[in-house]
Amino acid sequence: MVPLAAATERATGGCLVPVFVQIDNSAGRATISSAADPRPNELFAPAGATLGQVSSREAYARAGAATAFGRPVSVGGQPVQIGGMDAVGSLWFRIVLFGQPGPEPPLGWTLAEETVADMRSQLRAVPNQQQITTLRRILASEVTCPT
Fold first, then answer.
1. What is the rounded CA–CA span in Å between residue 130 and residue 96?
2. Overall pTM > 0.70
3. Can you spell out the DSSP letters for 12-66?
């Protein structure tokens, strides 16, 4: 896909600039547990190891996306100006839920009214609002690839 987009960019003299928006909707890890953590059950160790691999793949993919979109360049590798500014930070944006005190929510947590209200309030939290504000500014700005 990238070679085709880069070829199109060169052929048209345009400026194709990808933006990566990652929205994590899984519950954050609890910071305080209301019950003592039980000793790990050795019977479930293989499944735990497999799930750990999946989790590490997710972290690896997240880091890869942050690196790939960390510099504002076009698909052809040209430097990008957004809104006439050279110094634009990353084009990778992440909207997340934060860990909350207490036990982890049950499996059907997305249906609870309190959880929906909490998720909405976290969307308005400062880190998420900074990401959303910057993303909106970039999307509303003129993007150019000065040559």
1. 12
2. no
3. HT------EEEE--SPPPPSS-SSPPPPPPGGGHHHHHHHHHHHHHHHHHHHHHH
Whether residue 77 has pLDDT greater than 90: no
The long-range contacts involving 117-121, CB below 8 angstroms and separated by at least 24 positions, are 119/25
pLDDT of residue 132: 92
Centre a 10 Å sphere on the Cβ of residue 52 and count the other Cβ atoms it contains.
10
Cβ within 8 Å of residue 134, ≥6 positions away? 89, 93
Contact of 91 with 17, CB cutoff 8 Å: yes
Coil/strand/helix, residue 112: coil
Long-range pairs, 66-70, Cβ under 8 A, ≥24: 66/90, 66/92, 66/94, 68/20, 68/92, 69/18, 69/19, 69/20
- Coil, strand or helix: which one is 95? strand
Q: What is the dihedral of CA 54, 58, 61, 65, to 10 degrees?
A: 170
Band the pLDDT of 35: cuts 50, 70, 90. very low
